[in-house]
């Protein structure tokens, strides 16, 4: 089994083991799903989804479940460990790219599950806002690298993801730092075109772009970028994706997701929006042109 399959298998195993153990404990206690749902304050359908492994319960729900079935202390500790492990997924880039040429289709499927996407990026323009040439230059700098023959396919797949921005039933919010907007993976003209692209997309009714100037007083200092995938209760649970150099991390714990929501709120207080953001982008473009002369 390769690394990617092993990672996915371990996550499914942790999740399924938790589901199996919770159902076993309910059966041993002789409590119906309806009665258990009433005791811990969730719906009977959610109890069923938890026991099938399709939904991961929160730690407070697992604690309440343990109390309702009078699980022994050692079993409660096991359930806590299984729950915490099930809420975090780790996927290395190297292992993922051994299975396929690129991950853009997987990311698009993930984005399609969210009603609201919130992206904070301190280091580079987010993929959904990139021009084709900017995306090509960025992909050419990846490690592990893409081959020259694969680059057109990867860029085309990224541009395909961007079609979602024109779906008015969905919402997108971006917060970018000035440093991210100044990153130049190619000639000055490339960056100027990219700034124009960000400004243009910010005029869409369902797209909100915030820009944090370098001289803004910090309300929070996240050490990395992140993406919040916000879903309504009928489509699934919200989660966060964090990309680091060697892997991407998926975080589903309610308390952890709440931490990222708080950080998003504080970042929003630092950002310029609407006409103020577009005026800032225009001034930034003029500054870059002047420096290039």
UniProtKB/TrEMBL annotation:
A Pfam family reported for this protein in Swiss-Prot or TrEMBL: HTH_31
SUPFAM superfamilies xref list: lambda repressor-like DNA-binding domains
InterPro entries from the UniProt entry: Cro/C1-type_HTH, DUF5753, Lambda_DNA-bd_dom_sf
Domain of life: Bacteria
HTH cro/C1-type domain segment(s): 22-59
Protein name: Helix-turn-helix transcriptional regulator
Species this protein is from: Nonomuraea rosea
